[in-house]
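Annotated sample (chain length 286).
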Amino acid sequence: MDTELARTFLAIVAAGNFINAAERLHVTQSTVSARIKVLEGQLGCSLFVRNKAGTTLTPEGRRFQKHALALTRTVEAARHDVGVPRGYRASLTIAARIGLWEGFLLDWLPIIKRQAPDLAIRAEIGFEADLMQGLIDGRIEIGAMYTPQARPGLIVEPFFSEMLILVTTDIEGQEAAGDDGYVTIDWGPEFHANHAASFPDFVGAALSANIGWLGLQHILSQGGSGYFPERLVRDHLAAGRMKKRDDAPEFTMPAYLVYPKIHDTALFDPVLDSMRETAQAKVRLA
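Output written by the structure step:
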């Protein structure tokens, strides 16, 4: 079905009659009438009742309305996802965990914009399951995450390793895992396994969060402790807002790049190389 027919149908519903719809669409009334005639022929039913009071939907028209909305929205979403903005040679959708955007990929964005000013980037945040599904579906071109799953057709490449450290706002350093102010963060199954082995008596925290940023903001505002990538708390440590618990175990958490095995090397390789170089620079600063 031509989406122009669905748009014309919706314009009539919004305008109340064919005349006003024609004005909104900047076409003649006869064009609007012809489009609706074609649409009704395709559907095999009448969609409107026209009278002196205006235009009203038939029962079939009311049922078709939701389909017309879905059709036009799907086309607009597809145009937004796959279309290249005017003035750019190509576009890439890059998605990652929020912890990898904060203090890393956000710093990388201006770098790639300088290196490839004619490339449009769509940035997204998600969890591993959503990121992997987006890569499988082709909605996401490059993903950065902590716990990817191997899937046919995708390359899973080691990116860099985070060092998870226990930090506290208790500058005296008395707070530990299991204390009232301790916040647990869902850093993935490997972290949970290591944490359980290191703290066998730990039975749970009063507050847990699935996003590190959320837990960190709570601790900074209310006080407490928790495990975070050293990269994310470095400035807070330097400013004296937090202290590292040197007596607590540290955990390594690797990050990965995931992208299609079959890809446009001229488009992907400079972006991937830039991401790798930025990661190496971050590691050297750690």
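Annotation: The first helix runs from residue 3 to 15.
Annotation: The radius of gyration is 27 Å.
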